[in-house]
Amino acid sequence: MSGTGYTVEVTNLSSSASENDLHEFFSFSGPIEHIDLIRSGGYGSTAYVTFKEPYALETAVLLSGATIVDQPVCISRWGQPDEPCNFWDRPTWQVEEEIEYR
Asked: Which domain CATH number covers 24?
């Protein structure tokens, strides 16, 4: 991992995902500095993607829940343990403010 602080952790990553798949997926977020892909046997993988710019990190985090290769992934800021990582627990909708019309 790089010392820039613009790193995301990608969990629930398919074991068939490659570094090239990650680069292709995250290149739309912004310029990538480095990708570390850690294999966990045939059960899945974890990746750390370091960006050159802070806006790229923010964009990448918004992609949590998207599918890379063949399964949805969780994308969170690396080193932020208080950030909710389970996208299944996040609501997919939000209640808008009630507006009273007269």
From this structure: 3.30.70.330
Q: Is residue 97 part of a domain?
A: no
Q: How far apart are CA 92 and CA 102, in angstroms?
A: 30
52 falls within a domain: yes
Q: Cα separation of 19 and 25, whole Å?
A: 10
Alpha-carbon distance of 10 to 69, in angstroms, equals 13
Q: Is the pTM of this model over 0.90?
A: no
Q: pLDDT 10s digit of each residue in the chain, 102 long?
A: 545 579 999 999 999 999 999 999 999 999 999 999 999 877 789 999 999 999 999 999 999 999 999 999 999 999 865 555 554 555 444 455 566 666
Residue 23 lies in a domain: yes
Domain count, the chain: 1
Domain assignment present for 35: yes
The full DSSP string for 64-91 is TT-EETTEE-EEEETT-TTS---GGGS-
